[in-house]
Amino acid sequence: MILDQLVQASQQRVQAVPVRDRAKRIQQARKMTTPVLSFEAMLAQPGLQIIGEVKRASPSKGLIAAEFDYLQIAQDYVAAGIDAISVLTEPRYFKGQLSYLQTIAQTVSVPTLRKDFIVDASQIASARIAGASAVLLIVAILTPVQLQTFITLAHELNLSALVEVHTTAEIKQAVAAGARIIGINNRNLKDFSVDFATSCQLRQAVPAECYVVAESGIQTATQVQQLAAADFDGMLVGETLMRAPDKGQAVMQLRAGVRG
Ligand SMILES: O=P(O)(O)OC[C@@H](O)[C@@H](O)c1c[nH]c2ccccc12
């Protein structure tokens, strides 16, 4: 199963770094005083915020962008008025790099999200050191103790945690672990099938005190309208924007849905 492979690859990368060095990285991140652009404050703005994703490839689609000038893409997103940027940092299946996030975070003035398969606290520390505002934590790949520990660490480091769920049961687990931002993924990570209806179906199971983001498979202004009507705070859009030759126009088309 592919999700297991992704998790295993992530664990191997983590374990390649000696425990002592990982612990030092966490200490280094704890001492950081550089300000963080708040991902949560971005979601607190009125309306539906757009999080654009910088993604070169994916396990289900293979290479998405033949030409991949990640910084240019990020700058085009920002010029188009995007509210935040998600950067895939998983190297093997998504052809990402943490350095992409670092360069983007140093250059743009919107919050950035580290999109990876986080299985160790040191990856959260690395995100903070690279200048990210938030990390993705996937409920399906973590134990309850890990989830709670990672959410707490993210908050201690002044990072937001976007806690990804795919079922009502996972929403309950996320909230119990202290999640403040829930990401409902329309993509089933077990078989990679996408069903846009998932986000709207699960929306009502998210408690009112949490922010909520719809993820994956968002393509049309009509879908955006549905998300806005269902009172989502944000939406995460990857492929639709990555494949668009004109990012400005693509973002405008999505926003047309927000305005109705
Ligand atoms: O390209 P899409 O269908 O717009 O999806 C973006 C984002 O939701 C997707 O990349 C994603 C959601 N959860 C993830 C977890 C890991 C890697 C990637 C993802």
UniProtKB/TrEMBL annotation:
<keyword id="KW-0210">Decarboxylase</keyword>
<dbReference type="GO" id="GO:0004640">
    <property type="term" value="F:phosphoribosylanthranilate isomerase activity"/>
</dbReference>
<dbReference type="Pfam" id="PF00218">
    <property type="entry name" value="IGPS"/>
</dbReference>
<keyword id="KW-0028">Amino-acid biosynthesis</keyword>
<keyword id="KW-0057">Aromatic amino acid biosynthesis</keyword>
<dbReference type="InterPro" id="IPR001468">
    <property type="entry name" value="Indole-3-GlycerolPSynthase_CS"/>
</dbReference>
<dbReference type="InterPro" id="IPR013798">
    <property type="entry name" value="Indole-3-glycerol_P_synth_dom"/>
</dbReference>
<dbReference type="InterPro" id="IPR045186">
    <property type="entry name" value="Indole-3-glycerol_P_synth"/>
</dbReference>
<dbReference type="GO" id="GO:0004425">
    <property type="term" value="F:indole-3-glycerol-phosphate synthase activity"/>
</dbReference>
<dbReference type="InterPro" id="IPR013785">
    <property type="entry name" value="Aldolase_TIM"/>
</dbReference>
<dbReference type="InterPro" id="IPR011060">
    <property type="entry name" value="RibuloseP-bd_barrel"/>
</dbReference>
<keyword id="KW-0822">Tryptophan biosynthesis</keyword>
<comment type="pathway">
    <text>Amino-acid biosynthesis; L-tryptophan biosynthesis; L-tryptophan from chorismate: step 4/5.</text>
</comment>
<protein>
    <recommendedName>
        <fullName>Indole-3-glycerol phosphate synthase</fullName>
        <ecNumber>4.1.1.48</ecNumber>
    </recommendedName>
</protein>
<keyword id="KW-0456">Lyase</keyword>
<dbReference type="GO" id="GO:0000162">
    <property type="term" value="P:L-tryptophan biosynthetic process"/>
</dbReference>
<comment type="similarity">
    <text>Belongs to the TrpC family.</text>
</comment>
<feature type="domain" description="Indole-3-glycerol phosphate synthase">
    <location>
        <begin position="3"/>
        <end position="254"/>
    </location>
</feature>
